[in-house]
Design goal:
The protein is of the alpha+beta class. Helix content is 37%, strand content 23%. The chain has one domain. A hairpin with a 7-residue loop joins strand 2 and strand 3.
Length: 255
């Protein structure tokens, strides 16, 4: 055993360095606490028992592990939810898995008010974990965001948008109970790995030139052109977007 003796100024410097490390680095205790909290719920325990090995194998095939994971969810309304993943020390995300959105609500176009049955479109993040949801397991989406508030004239924009199970929806992104277990575990592992904000990018469709041309006369086309800037950036470089909102509600993207 090595014993280090530090005196005077050296002791003070060592204490400052230790404090700085503890503040700036995600603690293992915090990671374990989040997992332990989630495991208190029977549906999370069931998901781990039924899907833990499946998720671990998918991650291992990409050289990833559950305890060192960042994810981004990319959704195409009424079509597909993709999980993109990376190691926390890496810059680029790669598509890890995709799941069908199993029920549709509303039509192409953003959500602008309570009761319009629309699924939001834009750049959001996971703001809640609900392991005891009425819809099996659910992940809250941070609608309305700043852009939604600027662009909507409604007194009530609505809320409580989730990625959830049960395969029913009025404005959410529904999955089957079987698949939401995997999706939920990816999000839990990412949060437990220290990812404080898990992005959710929601698009009306894959924003290829061909698809944009098909919707050229839609009333939301100018808004979609703005969304496409972020879509193109993420598709091209696989890096998480730095999203800002202008005074007119437009998104801008930078590093």
């Amino acid at each position: 055993m090595q014993i280090f003796r530090i005196r005077g100024a050296n002791l003070f410097a060592a204490m400052v360095a230790l404090l700085a490390f503890s503040v700036s680095s995600p603690s293992m205790a915090a990671t374990q606490d989040f997992l332990a909290q989630q495991k208190q719920y029977v549906r999370v325990r069931d998901a781990l028992r039924e899907k833990g090995d499946v998720v671990a194998r998918v991650l291992a095939a990409r050289g990833l592990k559950p305890d060192a994971l960042n994810v981004i969810f990319v959704a195409y309304k009424g079509d597909t939810l993709e999980v993109h993943a990376k190691h926390p020390s890496s810059a680029r995300y790669e598509k890890l898995a995709q799941y069908p959105v199993c029920a549709a609500s509303g039509a192409p176009g953003p959500k602008r008010r309570q009761g319009d049955r629309q699924v939001p479109e834009g750049f959001y993040h996971i703001d809640r974990f609900n392991p005891a949801s009425h819809y099996h397991l659910s992940l809250g989406v941070s609608y309305p965001n700043a852009a939604d508030r600027i662009r909507s004239r409604a007194a009530d924009l609505g809320g409580d948008i989730f990625i959830h199970g049960k395969c029913v929806t009025i404005g959410c992104l529904p999955m089957t109970d079987d698949k939401i277990k995997e999706i939920y575990l990816y999000a839990v592992y990412a949060r437990a790995s220290g990812q404080k904000e898990i992005p959710v990018y929601i698009f009306p469709f894959r924003m290829t030139p061909e698809n944009m041309a098909r919707h050229g006369n839609h009333e939301a086309f100018a808004f979609w052109t703005n969304l496409k800037t972020g879509y193109d950036l993420f598709t091209a470089n696989g890096e998480a977007l730095t999203v800002r909102v202008a005074s007119n509600g437009d998104y801008s993207f930078g590093r």
